[in-house]
Amino acid sequence: MAETWLVVGLGNPGPRYELTRHNVGQLVLDELAARRGESFKAHKANARVVETWLRPGGAKLVLAKPNSFMNISGGPVSGLAKFYGVEPDHVVVVHDELDIPFDTIKLKVGGGHGGHNGVRDVAKALGTAEFPRVRVGIGRPPGRQDPADWVLDPFGAAERQNLGILVGDAADAVEQLVAEGLLAAQQRHHAPRI
């Protein structure tokens, strides 16, 4: 039987937040679903999901976007992990990262939450921080803007020009992580861009 991976895109619900920096994880999930010609459907775990495959005959993917606000993402993620019988080491969390420059992707397993309340809540709900993460760089705000406001702002015009590439690269990173493991994905996506 093919192994199952739960891939979660963190964000906030509703049109107000759709294209904000904090929702880049959900944009990556939209890309993964679009690549497979799939649409999200409501799930009883307070999330929208797509059940699909990495590739025919490959790992099963459950793509999920919690309906909860970012800071309380843990409940839906934990509920989905239980429902699908997925252990934390097969729960991939895709999220925005202030401490990584825009247009950069980093992957890791475990470690701290870096002040990211969505990641903090998922770790608390799963009972461990040892889950894979695809961290999508959004960079720090310019000047003295509060980071809490920055993450809830839409991407700027210059960022939007490259957003599709960034989202596509992050989706590639998720697929490579599942197919080939963390190290292979890190070696490809942590390399400097040429």
SSE topology sketch:
Layout: E1 4-9, H1 24-35, E2 41-43, E3 47-53, E4 60-66, H2 74-84, E5 91-97, E6 105-109, H3 117-126, E7 132-137, H4 147-152, H5 157-180, H6 182-189
Helix pairs in contact: 1-5, 2-3, 5-6
Descriptive overview:
The structure is a single chain. Helix 1 packs across helix 5 and helix 2 (74-84) packs across helix 3. The mean pLDDT is 94. This protein has helices at 24-35, 74-84, 117-126, 147-152, 157-180, 182-189, and strands at 4-9, 41-43, 47-53, 60-66, 91-97, 105-109, 132-137. It is built from 6 helices and 7 strands; from the N terminus they run βαβββαββαβααα. With 194 residues, the protein is α/β, with parallel strands linked by helices. The protein has a 7-stranded mixed β-sheet with strand order 2-3-4-1-5-7-6, sandwiched between helices. It is globular. The chain has one domain (4-189): Rossmann fold (3-Layer(aba) Sandwich), CATH 3.40.50. The protein starts with a strand and ends in a 5-residue tail after the last helix. A hairpin with a 3-residue loop joins strand 2 (41-43) and strand 3 (47-53).
Question: Can you tag this structure with a few keywords?
Answer:
7-stranded mixed β-sheet; Rossmann fold; single chain; 21% strand
Write down the domain tally: 1
Most strands sheet: 7 strands, mixed
CATH topology: Rossmann fold
Shape: globular
Give the topology string: H per helix, E per strand. Answer: EHEEEHEEHEHHH
What distance lies between the first and last C-alpha atoms, to the nearest angstrom? 40 Å
Provide the CATH top-level class. Alpha Beta
